[in-house]
TrEMBL record:
Pfam families on file: AAA_31
Record domain AAA: where: 1-173
Spans through the membrane: none
Protein name: ParA family protein
Amino acid sequence: MKVLSIVNLKGGVGKSTTAIAMAHLLYVKKLRKVLLIDNDPQGNTSRTFECYDPTIEAGTMNMLLTRKSKENIWNTLYEGIDIMPCNLIMEAAEKQVLLDTESAQHNRYIEALREIENEYDYCIIDNPPDIGMHVINALVASDQVIIPVNLDNWSLDGLEELVQQVKQIKVLNSKTELAGVLITNYEKSVTSEAAERWLRERSGQPIYHQKIRHSKQTKDCTVYHKPVTEYSIRCGASQDYKKFIEEYLKQEGI
Ligand SMILES: Nc1ncnc2c1ncn2[C@@H]1O[C@H](COP(=O)(O)OP(=O)(O)O)[C@@H](O)[C@H]1O
Ligand SMILES: [Mg+2]
């Protein structure tokens, strides 16, 4: 099982959209078995898969507390996609973990995921826009990190710091690598072209060749609780995510 974290300290850059589209395409196009972990108390990914319940202590928060994964996984309507849901109770769970000075705080997910190592091809973790202990746990458990970015004003601020944070995780797990930065919600403009040039030529970070275009359908599909790649197969963003998956798998040598 390859574990992949989708991370950015900024909100609204396309983390959940990317995690959901990747999980959906890896299953429907490539027949891979995917576990999607919602690590964001907002629960947007859980809602997309009709697995959001704000009242119950279940899913990812339980994994953080108990170091167990299997019993916290729910089925979705897609045979090849399972989910570990999240809700706001995660915030209380995180506080509880921070108060626990008896046992290690950062290695709970990596230990938990060993239990299901042979049951999935991919585990994709959708993260919230912060660097709390549950995000540290996700990074430590990850083989790869993908950072979605937007190219509008200020969006690239903080990228350098985030990349440094990913590098620091190597002390805790030497396998964790930045796989690449993915430009999402792309609209052509003088500013976005200049930002892209800087990113590709000057940032020193690996940038995926494929960008994800801005498509109105990406917002619309959230109302219907569907991945954009199912809601509108032909829209620009879906086409781009399909090409991105090919690029991602090629990078893997597949
Ligand atoms: N390619 C895109 N085109 C248009 N809207 C997008 C695109 N990607 C994301 N969005 C919209 O932007 C908002 C934030 O995206 P989301 O994936 O929830 O970001 P994050 O998880 O980083 O907070 C959502 O309303 C989403 O539908
Ligand atoms: Mg999100």
